[in-house]
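Whiteboard transcription, Tuesday session. T.W. wrote the structure tokens on the left side:
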């Protein structure tokens, strides 16, 4: 080993380790770090992808706070996140508890319930959703079977279009379901046996054992689902016809970034919008981590 290597504490194992992870490091630099830096630099310019960027400072950021559609996209995205994330986690936990058993064939049902999470973000499913919630779709047919006759097009109605997208998002609860299921299997059975001996009912066991034991898993799912909600794009793009309609009621923030950058040719402004949401996601995540100590219970905590 050379003197320089000894001076900086670099060993042969260190060099081998860096060589092994070099494909990931190169990929991170090329596909993540460089685009991040580039987008920030472009956010300080007026750039339309065709001509050379022109430096404008923080004008794009100031313009965002004077843009009515910017605020509308924020309202839509926050409403979507605040409604669909809790509903998705509740459904995911409920189904995970149903599947937390060793009955024959339960693995097949787990796979079937996970399937929507795999295909839910596809264009085909979004098109199917348009048909289901159309004026002659399956949803209206179901309502008709229970005596509610309607020909409402739930996708094109400004009052219900966002609800249709939220239902689609909640339907994709397979991923958090599997994570909840893994968490449920880590809870010692002795806890429940002791509670049953003490006369605790099902509700008491759930509130006193299951929920506290699952708080780390709930916290993880909450953070990941919130970040995913802020970045929702595919379903809104297809269902709204790529414009956020009707009346901008499905104008998600990521969709608005796309419209500004690629449809209106304002890539500098789109980059500024992207950095605003990055900062917002960082703040929300930091707040969640800061407050997690009050409600997240870890087994080693006293």
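and on the right, the sequence the group agreed on:
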């Amino acid at each position: 080993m050379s003197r320089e290597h000894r001076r900086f504490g670099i060993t042969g194992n260190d060099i081998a380790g860096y060589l092994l992870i070099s494909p990931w490091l190169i990929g991170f630099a090329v596909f993540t770090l460089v685009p991040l830096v580039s987008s920030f630099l472009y956010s300080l310019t007026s750039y339309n992808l065709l001509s050379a960027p022109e430096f404008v400072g923080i004008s794009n950021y100031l313009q965002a706070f004077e843009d009515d559609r910017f605020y509308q996209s924020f309202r839509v995205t926050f409403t979507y996140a605040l409604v669909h994330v809790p509903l998705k986690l509740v459904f995911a936990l409920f189904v995970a508890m149903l599947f937390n058993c060793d009955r024959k064939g339960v693995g097949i049902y787990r796979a079937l319930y996970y399937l929507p999470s795999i295909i839910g973000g596809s264009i085909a499913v979004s098109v199917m959703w348009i048909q289901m919630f159309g004026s002659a779709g399956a949803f209206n047919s179901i309502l008709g079977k229970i005596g509610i006759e309607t020909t409402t097009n739930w996708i094109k109605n400004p009052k219900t279009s966002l609800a249709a997208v939220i239902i689609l998002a909640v339907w994709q609860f397979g991923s958090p379901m599997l994570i909840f299921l893994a968490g449920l299997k880590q809870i010692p059975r002795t806890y429940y046996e002791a509670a049953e001996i003490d006369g605790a009912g099902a509700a008491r066991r759930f509130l006193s054992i299951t929920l506290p034991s699952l708080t780390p898993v709930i916290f993880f799912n909450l953070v990941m689902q919130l970040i995913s909600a802020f970045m929702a794009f595919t379903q809104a793009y297809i269902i709204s016809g790529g414009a956020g309609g009707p009346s901008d009621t499905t104008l998600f923030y990521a969709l608005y970034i796309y419209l500004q950058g690629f449809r209106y040719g304002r890539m500098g402004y789109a980059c500024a919008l992207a950095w605003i949401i990055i900062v917002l996601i960082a703040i929300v995540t930091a707040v969640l981590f800061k407050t997690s100590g009050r409600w997240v219970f870890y087994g080693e905590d006293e």
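Someone added at the bottom: The chain has a mean pLDDT of 87.
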